[in-house]
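A reminder from the course coordinator: this example appears on the midterm review sheet, so study it carefully.

Given structure:
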């Protein structure tokens, strides 16, 4: 290298280092900016959201909160009554579904004396149907549920409840914290002697303000001492929900378990995924009630609440936020419980319930629940099993696999799953050589893919993969076990 070229080289190196430093500086600046953004929360505070909505000239339709009770004998205009399915419990599917229905007048009174044991029969409750395969016009079907029971529950039914009040203590909640504190104390005042209540909070950390207890004085005194502690910036909502679910392990299993969560925004600090919360709540039989503020709507939280037998509330005023404490507690005490054995179908179930108090008018209530393998909480790489079985040494689908294929088609045709791609994995038993079983498993996976494509699923959303004999469900030591190992499984590739 000549001496004249050395300064040029040094200049080039210097320019490269300056450019490298500039890029690094820009990256660090952006990272810091994002950190500040998420720590401060990008949405308005809960107080600002409620204040904005208070001033709206045309506010959204308000939820009718329960205000009291009234016997049907005192109702003069039955045509003005409102009939709703408030919650659906599907934890015991396919053995049983439980509907929590309510009848209101226009002022929010719960109408009583419509079913046993208060009334001698369930004559007013005329019809119950379920509709499945709702995403397929040609295969959609409605099943008439002939055998269902209705029982009325009121405040005199001394059911002991376990209730965890979970409150978001991140910084943006400061403006409504006084309302939440007052509401929590009001909730304690409403409890019956046998109820167990806990109060917990979260920002980036989870805190137990008051452990489960039944004594009102203890609950109130302890909460007043600690309610101003543990405020912070970030929000680890899913972490807190999972820890709240596990708190119920110390209580008797027969106690109905409920989490009531108040939060204004998205999770920005959890390591727990939404699906973990959903599956844990189902496993531990915990019902999640979620209360959101203003126009912020969380579809995932709504799904988790509704599918765990809870309810999602969206309140638009500070008064409604106060009312929701009373509404939730009274809703646990006053309802009509409808139970029945559902049709077996892996997918969305739509419910219609008819109530006829007089001959000329029928009130209808609607509900839904899901037994789908793919839902809004699913993540890429999640997998699920379907026992689509094959005859020995063949890749032809058995006739009994037809219903499973139809369930998959319905799930993939749902608007909620339009972006889902699946890997279809074929498996064999251990009979035969490795290479032979590899080819057979590929043919079985492709047979399922072909069946889905024939029913309208886009080919680009499906990938066939043979797994051979390497991943048995059961030891290959009996014909029954080998039949189970000849199967198809599914993995979510994209969502």
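Designed residues:
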């Amino acid at each position: 290298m000549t001496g004249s070229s050395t300064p040029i080289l040094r200049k080039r190196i210097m320019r490269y280092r300056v450019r490298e430093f500039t890029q690094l500086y820009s990256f660090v600046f952006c990272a810091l900016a994002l950190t500040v953004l998420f720590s401060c929360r990008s949405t308005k505070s809960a107080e600002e959201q409620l204040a904005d909505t208070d001033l709206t000239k045309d506010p959204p339709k308000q939820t009718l909160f329960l205000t009291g009770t009234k016997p049907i004998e005192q109702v003069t205009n039955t045509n003005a009554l409102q009939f709703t399915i408030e919650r659906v419990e599907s934890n015991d599917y396919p053995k049983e579904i439980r509907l929590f229905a309510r009848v209101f007048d226009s002022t929010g009174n719960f109408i009583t004396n419509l079913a046993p044991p208060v009334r001698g029969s369930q004559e007013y409750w005329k019809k119950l149907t379920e509709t499945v395969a709702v995403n397929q016009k040609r295969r959609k079907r409605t099943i008439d549920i002939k055998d269902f029971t209705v029982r009325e529950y009121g405040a005199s039914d001394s059911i002991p409840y376990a209730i965890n009040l979970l409150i978001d203590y991140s910084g943006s909640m400061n403006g409504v914290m006084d309302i939440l504190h007052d509401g929590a104390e009001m909730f304690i005042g409403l409890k019956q002697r046998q109820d167990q209540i806990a109060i917990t909070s979260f920002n980036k950390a989870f805190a137990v303000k008051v452990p489960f207890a039944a004594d009102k004085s203890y609950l109130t005194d302890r909460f007043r001492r600690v309610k101003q502690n543990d405020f912070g910036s970030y929000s680890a909502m899913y972490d807190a929900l999972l820890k709240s679910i596990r708190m119920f392990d110390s209580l008797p299993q027969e106690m109905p378990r409920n989490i009531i969560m108040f939060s204004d925004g998205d999770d920005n600090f959890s390591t727990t995924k939404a699906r973990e919360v959903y599956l844990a709540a189902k496993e531990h039989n915990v019902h999640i009630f979620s209360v959101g503020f203003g126009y912020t709507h969380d579809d995932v939280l709504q799904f988790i609440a509704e599918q765990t037998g809870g309810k999602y509330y969206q309140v638009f005023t500070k008064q409604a936020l106060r009312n929701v404490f009373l509404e939730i507690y009274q809703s646990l005490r006053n309802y009509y419980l409808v139970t029945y054995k559902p049709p077996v179908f892996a997918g969305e179930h739509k419910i219609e319930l008819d109530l006829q108090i007089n001959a000329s008018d029928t009130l209808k209530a609607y509900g839904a629940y899901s037994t789908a393998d793919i839902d809004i909480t699913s993540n890429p790489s999640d997998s699920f099993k379907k026992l689509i079985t094959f005859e020995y040494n063949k890749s032809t689908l058995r006739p009994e696999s037809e219903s499973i294929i139809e369930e998959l088609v319905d799930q993939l045709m749902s608007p909620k799953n339009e972006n889902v791609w699946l890997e279809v994995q074929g498996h064999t038993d251990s009979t035969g050589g490795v290479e032979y079983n590899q080819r057979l498993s590929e043919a079985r996976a492709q047979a399922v893919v072909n069946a889905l494509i024939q029913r309208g699923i886009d080919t680009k959303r499906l990938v066939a993969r043979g797994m051979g004999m390497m991943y048995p469900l059961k030891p290959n030591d009996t014909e029954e076990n080998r039949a189970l190992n000849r199967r198809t499984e599914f993995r979510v590739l994209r969502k």
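The longest strand covers residues 348-358. The radius of gyration is 28 Å.
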